[in-house]
Amino acid sequence: MRGRGGASARWLPSAFAALAPQMAERGVELPKWSATRWIRRTPRSNTRETAQAIKGMHIRKATKYLKDVTLKKQCVPFRRYNGGVGRCAQAKQWGWTQGRWPKKSAEFLLHMLKNAESNAELKGLDVDSLVIEHIQVNKAPKMRRRTYRAHGRINPYMSSPCHIEMILTEKEQIVPKPEEEVAQKKKISQKKLKKQKLMARE
C-alpha cells in the first residue's frame, strides 16, 4: 500500500487533535511540530516495539539506533508482544531479557524519520534539536490472501499492516546556571569563635 507522508494544513496529528480544544480553552499554543504518517505493510507488533524503543530519543540518536538494529549491533526489547520471543544479551542495556532485530520495521521508521526531518526543514524548525515527542502504531485493515491445504481446503493467509504516526518537536535548550562570582561567607557561631581564640593563644 502507498504511504502518505507530510503534514498538510488540513490534517492535525491525532495526538494533538485530541488536546487542541483543551489547549485552546486555556490559551496555550501548540508547540512547533513536524509530523508524518504512513500506512505500511510491516508487522504491527514488531513496529510497535521498535517505535516504543525510539520514543523520546533525539533524531540523530534514533537514526543511529535504527541503523544498528538493521546491522544487529543493537536489539529492540520486546516488552508487550513477547510470546515465544527468544532472550538476547543485547536486551540487558534496556533492563529486559527478550529482544529481536526487526529489520523491516527499522527500515520503515528510518524512512519516516527522514521524511519528518524534511518537513521540519520546510517549517523552519531547528533540525539539530528535534526530539521524537510522540509516536504511535495502530492496526490497519488486514490484507487477505489464501493458502491451499490438503483435501481441497483453503485457509486464510492474512497480513497485519499498521498505521504509523510520528511527531517531532524542538527540545528546549537548557541554559546552565552561572556560577556565583563571590562565594558567600559561612557564618561562624560565637561559641566557635571563642574556641578558635583559645586555641590560638595556646
Automatic annotation (TrEMBL):
<feature type="compositionally biased region" description="Basic residues">
    <location>
        <begin position="185"/>
        <end position="202"/>
    </location>
</feature>
<dbReference type="InterPro" id="IPR036394">
    <property type="entry name" value="Ribosomal_uL22_sf"/>
</dbReference>
<dbReference type="Pfam" id="PF00237">
    <property type="entry name" value="Ribosomal_L22"/>
</dbReference>
<comment type="similarity">
    <text>Belongs to the universal ribosomal protein uL22 family.</text>
</comment>
<dbReference type="InterPro" id="IPR001063">
    <property type="entry name" value="Ribosomal_uL22"/>
</dbReference>
<keyword id="KW-0689">Ribosomal protein</keyword>
<dbReference type="GO" id="GO:0002181">
    <property type="term" value="P:cytoplasmic translation"/>
</dbReference>
<dbReference type="InterPro" id="IPR018260">
    <property type="entry name" value="Ribosomal_uL22_CS"/>
</dbReference>
<feature type="region of interest" description="Disordered">
    <location>
        <begin position="178"/>
        <end position="202"/>
    </location>
</feature>
<dbReference type="GO" id="GO:0003735">
    <property type="term" value="F:structural constituent of ribosome"/>
</dbReference>
<protein>
    <recommendedName>
        <fullName>Large ribosomal subunit protein uL22</fullName>
    </recommendedName>
</protein>
<keyword id="KW-0687">Ribonucleoprotein</keyword>
<dbReference type="InterPro" id="IPR005721">
    <property type="entry name" value="Ribosomal_uL22_euk/arc"/>
</dbReference>
<dbReference type="GO" id="GO:0022625">
    <property type="term" value="C:cytosolic large ribosomal subunit"/>
</dbReference>
